[in-house]
Design goal:
By secondary structure, this protein is mainly α. It has two helices and no strands.
Length: about 140
């Protein structure tokens, strides 16, 4: 009777060990996918940062050009009010674009920070997975 109970417990232990192994494999696969996704997000974030920087430079150049144009138009003729109004509108739009780019940059920074948090947490899960696997391996018959 006791031998049957020991045998049953051994069988249950083996089944539980196999179940844990499968779960660990799933966690490892999920961790690898998560790390890959985080790396892709980091690359996308870097690309966005580059684009935002180029747009900011272009806006600065556009603002300088707009100012120069406004001064020249003013010197040529004070009677060309329409041109001066257009230049003022361009400056306003440029300011709004600069605000939008600043918002995009802030969101990009938040995304980068959150991506790093996810990466750190996934690395913690990976370490936990390895530790759990080591514990399970210690109980193999």
């Amino acid at each position: 009777m006791v031998a049957n109970e020991i045998k049953a417990l051994s069988t249950q232990t083996n089944e539980a060990t196999e179940d844990i192994k499968e779960k660990i494999k799933g966690i490892e696969q999920t961790s690898e996918i998560t790390i890959s996704s985080i790396e892709k997000l980091s690359q996308i974030t870097e690309t966005i940062d580059d684009i935002v920087s180029k747009i900011a430079v272009a806006i600065d150049e556009q603002a300088v050009t707009t100012t120069d144009l406004s001064e020249k138009v003013s010197n040529i003729s004070h009677g060309l009010n329409d041109i001066n109004e257009n230049a003022a509108e361009i400056a306003t739009v440029s300011g709004k674009m600069a605000d939008d780019i600043g918002s995009i940059n802030a969101r990009s920074s938040k995304m980068s920070t959150k991506s790093m948090d996810v990466l750190k947490k996934s690395e913690g899960l990976k370490d936990l997975s390895h530790n759990l696997k080591a514990l399970v391996d210690r109980f193999k018959f």
